[in-house]
């Protein structure tokens, strides 16, 4: 049994040190990283610095300006126009 464990350890070390194992392991890590962070990577290449405009239609008398605050990513527009006109825009 000691010969088997010795042989097993020797083969394991040889496989771990091989170039193909190291290359495939690194490739696997890179592919997984790209899959997980795809939205951020895509945003780097196609990202618009322009804020996204969102129209808010308020059919009540409540003041929603405190809830919907515009920032660099989103620009909220409280518009009193007709809904069909806003949908066309």
Keywords:
mainly alpha; two-stranded parallel sheet; 55% helix
What does this structure look like?
The chain is mainly α and 89 residues long. The chain has four helices and two strands; from the N terminus they run H-H-H-E-E-H. The longest helix has 18 residues, at 19-36. The radius of gyration is 28 Å and the shape is rod-shaped. It starts with a helix and ends with a helix.
Question: Strand content of the residues, in percent?
Answer: 5-15%
| DSSP strand count | 2
- Order of strands in the sheet with the most strands? 1-2
Helical stretch tally = 4
Mean pLDDT: 82
Q: How large is the radius of gyration? A: 28 Å
User: Cα distance, first to last residue?
Assistant: 77 Å
* Poorly predicted ranges: none
Provide the helix percentage: 55-70%
User: Tell me, what's the shape?
Assistant: rod-shaped
Structural class: mainly alpha
For the largest beta-sheet, the strand count, sense and barrel status come to:
2 strands, parallel
| Helix/strand order | HHHEEH
